[in-house]
Design goal:
Shape: elongated
Distance between the termini: 49 Å
Number of domains: 2
Structural class: mainly beta
């Protein structure tokens, strides 16, 4: 038997073993149908009280959760919208003022429109940190402001990237990344969602399909041929291989596509395989975990997706999560 025939058989056998270990038969879809689950639990109550144009039965408002690292969602209707780390849309109220910052949403209003706390907030690419501020509410709590406008969530947004609060009462509007009212064609200050990274020291470099890069904070991290950092989602599963990032989630986190295993460096090719997503497309996995790149990374080497929502993390060449 020729040497190349032996190598081919060995690689095939390794692939069969890996697919079986991942809970998927070679060549089949396996148990990998993604569930239409959100990226996080609803950050606000689902049974809002009516106030300032909001409708619904009266219910006690939950304690507002911190926004974490702000991100940018891409709405087909509204264009770029400001979202919290879990993907929930942030809103502004026409009856508020930005100069000086002041909230007019009090009492029953906050049951439907929970104010976003000012603590534990950070920006990401495309969001100017200098625009972030706070206002002291009448109850003494601090509320996040963007360009002076107080920020709120909407109780009827029960899944990430919903914009059910848009236009309520003619006074509530999804916020754009610069604090203005979101609308098609508004500028974000970054690359359009879904665009490939451009620029940077490695732009145009002839990179392998998959390789490792040295990050000053995270150490060795996996990247694709475009220099984009690759991520794992903790709500996915490896047994069986399954992606829980679908719908709106997939607009921000793009599934990594299959690669030629002969064109990889710094990683054992045996760790890489693919599985079939619900739409029929194939996604690359490492150690059975689905891989993604983040539209919020503007240029090669960016790691703006690290820690987003407490569920997204860069990946080491071993396939393990990197939690900084």
């Amino acid at each position: 038997m020729r040497k190349w025939q032996s190598a081919s058989i060995a690689v095939t056998a390794a692939a069969v073993m890996l697919l079986t270990a991942c809970g998927q038969e070679p060549g089949g879809a396996g148990a990998n149908a993604a569930q239409p689950a959100g990226q996080a639990e609803a950050a606000v109550p689902q049974d809002p009280g009516g106030g300032n144009g909001a409708s619904g039965s009266t219910g006690a408002a939950q304690k507002a959760k911190p926004a974490g690292q702000l991100t940018i969602g891409d709405s087909e209707e509204l264009g770029p919208v400001l979202t919290d780390s879990a993907g929930f849309t942030l809103y502004r109220f026409d009856k508020d003022t930005a100069n000086p910052p002041k909230s007019a949403c009090e009492g029953e209003c906050v049951k439907a429109w929970p104010p976003v706390p000012a603590a534990d907030v950070s920006s990401t690419s495309g969001i100017d940190a200098a625009l972030l501020g706070e206002v002291t509410r009448s109850d003494g709590t601090k509320q996040l402001t963007v360009d002076g406008w107080p920020m709120y969530r909407y109780a009827k947004d029960t899944e990430p990237w919903q914009t059910n609060g848009q236009g309520v009462g003619g006074t509530w509007h999804a916020a754009a990344p610069d604090g203005k009212k979101a609308q098609p064609g508004s500028e974000t200050g970054g690359e359009p969602a879904g665009s490939a990274p451009a620029g940077g020291s490695e732009a145009g470099a002839d990179l392998p399909a998959i390789s490792a890069a040295k990050d000053a904070e995270l150490g060795e991290i996996l990247r694709d041929a475009e220099g984009r950092t690759l991520y794992r989602f903790t709500k996915d599963s490896a047994w069986p291989m399954k992606s829980n990032c679908v719908g709106k989630c997939e607009e921000l986190w793009k599934p990594a596509r299959p690669v030629d295993l002969k064109d990889v460096e710094d990683i054992d090719p045996k760790l890489l395989t693919t599985f079939k997503r619900p739409d029929g497309s194939k996604q690359l996995t490492v150690d059975c975990w689905p891989l993604y790149w983040y539209t919020g990374d503007e240029k090669p080497g960016d790691t703006n997706g690290q820690g987003v929502g407490g569920t997204w993390f860069a990946v080491a060449p071993s396939g393990k999560l990197i939690k900084s």
